[in-house]
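Message: I would love a firmer grasp of how sequence relates to backbone shape in proteins. Thank you; the sequence and its tokens follow:
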Amino acid sequence: MPVFAANLTMMFNEWPFLDRFDAAADAGFVAVEYLFPYEAAPEAIAERLARNNLQQALFNLPPGDWAAGERGIAALPGRFDALKADVERALDYAAATGVRRLHLMAGLADPDDEDAASSYRHSVAYAAGRLLEEGIDLLLEPINGRNMPGYFLNDFGAAERLIAELGLPNLKLQFDIYHRQIIHGDVVMALRRLVSITGHIQIASVPSRNEPDGEELNYSYLFEEIDRLGYDGFIGCEYIPRGHTLDGLGWFRPFARS
């Protein structure tokens, strides 16, 4: 049966960040994810995880200056020293939370720019190697250009090729079904082909990015297929509730922790 992680950046926004851990556990979730933990102390997050018997499924390495529009720095030439510092900062939070998967955002750059491609490859190889020392997987997530125009890693094939070329045992794909459907479609066939390199799955309805209970995709079928494929990782609920978070959890009740 799928194991779902509530995304605390998008869900449970009716509560302050740290209180979202309590709310997610009360709703029946056994795991959580979010974009960034860095405005809270790692010890405070660790306490909420322990208090609620929650697993930390995933979070992102620092993305650069998010407020100024940066969406990662891995593909940005001249930012490698900053990236190395960011990896160490993320590892401090990983040690506190017990997370075993971290996502590296690529940044806004032209995928055809040779300097950007070289910077990205170098950054990914370094980050994966450093995380391997700590027993942590590094995830790469293709993101669609409608939600994030100009994002460097906007193609599942490019992510698949880089993972194969680098050949690092802890370098995995973050398969966001919402992004896959918008970029390429053909979700089920892609899951079948890529499940062996997939370290994390995320879900949302398409096109509205709401609860996974309607619109283009048949998530009941997709959950069955994910089980059939033997995927045993987390499924992150990276969606924007249509209204109050709790009112939209009807789809989740059959999977909730009692």
